[in-house]
Design a protein that fits this description.
The chain is an alpha+beta fold and about 325 residues long. It is about 30% helix and about 30% strand. It is built from 10 helices and 17 strands. A hairpin with a 2-residue loop joins strand 16 and strand 17. Helix 5 packs parallel to helix 6 and helix 5 runs parallel beside helix 7.
């Protein structure tokens, strides 16, 4: 990804003013009401569940974790591309489970069928279910006036976790993104529907393998907040900052920097790892045809700074301007 000299500051200002990033601030409402963590009691076990992660991790009596997450699709996305919206409803949930170091188990959906909608939404969900090997086992479907609305939830399992609150100063930042795709719309970079199920499952399966080996403990999957917004949420949760080297970020050839930094890739993860593990982790992603590289470092001061060559620009100071509200102590 190439930037012209002097472009970094204006690019940073444009990235920091994105509407998708502003929408993440609405999470502060949930942070205010529910707090940094909750106590869970079930199956005779009790434990703390930290809010603000890609999935809730519920500790089971045997020491493993049950993971639970949910995603909603935007109305305009469902209307414009119902099949891919259905596919994405499953795909992003499965990705959330992998981002936590787990393996997805099953999905349920909530579908309000409005005007202009048809079974294409469900066909997309079924295609993703078959591709990722995660069944859609139930949900809720009804007819409504107005646009079609879609949400889905997923349950998964893990023995070791990758979490958002465990990044530490001195770790290296890694980006792992499947670049073997193309833009489906303005922001969605799709590398999933043309790949084989075996390839996709192996890629997602690498995240729990890295967690179980102790190579990766902190990370997040790249969301519609883009690379910088996703990294900001990871940093806020951990109470740290980072220096992000834009020139090192894996990217398609000749892609517009603003478009790529605001893209929502079908397979994209940001990980914070100890320096001695970085070469192995990158190599294991590359063996599965996922572009992976060290793209920066975690710093103690809670600021995200972007760098390109000799230029630097402050993206956000989390101490002065929190994003989700899920930072700081529980």
């Amino acid at each position: 990804m190439k930037l012209e000299t002097g472009q970094l500051r204006s690019l940073t200002l444009e990235l920091a003013s994105r509407g998708e990033l502003e929408l993440k601030q609405d999470i502060q409402l949930a942070a205010k009401v529910f707090g940094r963590s909750q106590r869970a009691h079930w199956l005779g076990a009790a434990g703390e569940v930290r809010n603000g992660d890609d999935a809730a991790a519920l500790r089971a009596p045997d020491g493993s974790y049950v993971l639970f997450a949910a995603e909603g699709m935007r109305d305009e996305f469902v209307s414009a591309d119902p099949w891919f919206a259905g596919y994405s409803a499953v795909m992003v949930n499965v990705s959330d489970i992998a981002a936590m170091g787990g393996r997805a188990w099953a999905v349920v959906d909530v579908l309000f069928l409005g005007s202009g909608a048809n079974e294409r939404v469900l066909e997309g969900m079924q295609a993703a279910s078959a591709t990722f090997g995660v069944p859609v086992v139930g949900g809720h479907t009804t007819r409504v006036e107005g646009p079609t609305r879609l949400a889905a939830a997923v349950v998964g399992r893990a023995t070791s976790l990758i979490e958002s609150h465990t990044a530490r100063a001195g770790q290296l930042l890694l980006a792992a993104i499947d670049l073997r795709g193309s833009f489906r719309n303005r922001s969605a970079f799709n590398a999933a529907t043309t790949a084989s199920p075996e390839q996709l499952r192996a890629q997602l399966g690498l995240l729990p393998e890295l967690a179980e080996s102790g190579r990766v403990r902190a990370g997040k999957d790249i969301s519609n907040a883009g690379v910088c917004g996703t990294l900001l949420m990871l940093l806020e949760s951990s109470g740290v900052g980072a220096l992000l080297e834009l020139g090192a970020l894996p990217a398609p050839e000749r892609v517009d920097p603003l478009r790529w930094l605001t893209a929502f890739p079908s397979f994209g993860f940001l990980l914070a790892v100890d320096p001695e593990h970085a070469p192995e982790v990158c190599a294991r992603f590359r063996a599965l045809e996922v572009a992976a590289a060290v793209v920066g470092e975690v710093t103690a001061e809670p600021k995200l700074v972007l760098r390109h060559g000799q230029e630097r620009a402050l993206y956000r100071d989390l101490q002065l301007d929190p994003l989700t509200g899920f930072g700081g102590p529980p």
